[in-house]
Write a structure and sequence with these properties.
Chain B: One of its GO terms (biological process) is endoplasmic reticulum to Golgi vesicle-mediated transport. The complex is a heterodimer of chains A (150) and B (139). With 150 residues, chain A is mostly helical. Chain A has helices at residues 2-25, 31-51, 61-77, 100-103, 115-132; strands at 83-86, 92-95. In chain A, helix 2 packs across helix 5 (115-132). Chain B has one domain (2-134): Beta-Lactamase. Chain B is built from 3 helices and 5 strands; from the N terminus they run ββαβββαα. Chain B starts with a strand and ends with a helix. The chains are: A mainly alpha (150), B alpha+beta (139).
């Protein structure tokens, strides 16, 4: 379907546009990631509201994380999270071996330092979704080798 | 017919309250406020008592002498409370459920409005129109 490409392109342009604007105004270099993340936050809140409209009530945190890994990820990125790990004390690691927003960039170590910019929006997305479901969280992302990311 | 409809946020403050006989509004505000306790009780009891998979709709919260109160909780812990006149006994469960579905759909639309910040009072005209139609419909 054409709309996967639409979102990918829009997203890359969003990242590029924000950084370009930051360069020109010369003031606020580190703030781009924050802006991207807060954009993702608001979008995540709205998205979650729509997606959970018809689903059953969630019993506990693990249930919510599983929902995010399966339904939410499928609807946004058309695939599921490959691996979910937890230490049962509030830390969850979601691993995606073929993250859609990064597949177009490279298949190895090239451009590794630019990857975090592209992950900020998705981190915000997850944080927004979780906060709307009642969970305060911090979401970080790490890329060791494209296109996989945690 | 619904005499009062309220949307209550996660932190238990009202996002939207509307009642029909506008002179006695305070009484309805009070009723909605007390019904929040019942809602919380139902939510916390859910996990232990019944493995209640599908229920966002809570059903009749409590009946009083003039009216009945129904509740509905979304997955994002936003509560919808509806106060219905007892004299109109023709309102069946299904109709109440469908009214709550419509409320939920409109609420979702409001959430997706970029000009709306989650946690603010709801000022949307579309929402108002929908609520008006629900309050008038079975009159």
């Amino acid at each position: 379907m054409a709309d996967e490409a639409l979102f990918l392109l829009l997203h890359s342009e969003m990242v590029a546009g924000l950084y370009r604007a930051a360069e020109q105004s010369e003031g606020e270099n580190g703030r781009c990631t924050t802006k991207l993340e807060s954009m993702g936050f608001r979008v995540g809140q709205g998205l979650i509201e729509r997606f959970t409209k018809d689903t059953a009530r969630f019993k506990d945190e693990l249930d919510i994380m599983k929902f995010i890994c399966k339904d939410f990820w499928t609807t946004v990125f058309k695939k599921q999270i490959d691996n979910l790990r937890t230490n049962h004390q509030g830390i969850y690691v979601l691993q995606d071996n073929k993250f859609r927003l990064l597949t177009q960039m490279s298949a190895g170590k090239q451009y590794l330092e630019h990857a975090p910019k592209y992950l900020a929006f998705t981190c915000g997305l997850i944080r927004g979704g979780l906060s709307n479901l009642g969970i305060k969280s911090i979401v970080t992302a790490e890329v060791s080798s494209m296109p996989a990311c945690k | 017919m619904a005499v009062c409809i309220a949307v209550i946020a996660k932190e238990n403050y009202p996002l939207y309250i509307r009642s029909i006989p506008t002179e006695n509004e305070l009484k309805f505000h009070y009723t909605v406020h007390t019904s929040l306790d019942v809602v919380d009780e139902k939510i916390s009891a859910m996990g232990k008592a019944l493995v209640d998979q599908r229920e966002l709709y809570l059903g009749l919260l409590y009946p009083t002498e003039d009216y009945k109160v129904y509740g509905y909780v979304t997955n994002s812990k936003v509560k919808f409370v509806m106060v219905v006149d007892s004299s109109n006994t023709a309102l069946r469960d299904n109709e109440i459920r469908s009214m709550f579905r419509k409320l939920h759909n409109s609420y979702t639309d409001i959430m997706c409005n970029p000009f709306y910040n989650p946690g603010d009072r709801i000022h949307s005209r579309a929402f108002d129109t929908m609520v008006n139609s629900m309050m008038m419909q079975v009159c």
